[in-house]
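Severity: low
Component: inverse-folding endpoint
Summary: output formatting inconsistent between runs
Steps to reproduce: submit the following structure tokens with default settings.
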């Protein structure tokens, strides 16, 4: 990602990023942690 706009107002810094494009479709496997190891094993 590249920054295309920065703006400072008071103590705050606002940064705008260019949207990125996915060139090849892919799959994301998300397994948030749980009390046990079930999510780790299932991933």
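Observed output (run 2 of 3):
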């Amino acid at each position: 990602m590249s920054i295309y706009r920065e703006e400072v107002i008071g103590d705050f810094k606002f940064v705008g990023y260019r949207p990125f494009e996915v060139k090849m479709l892919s799959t994301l496997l998300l397994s948030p942690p749980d009390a046990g190891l079930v999510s780790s094993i299932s991933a």
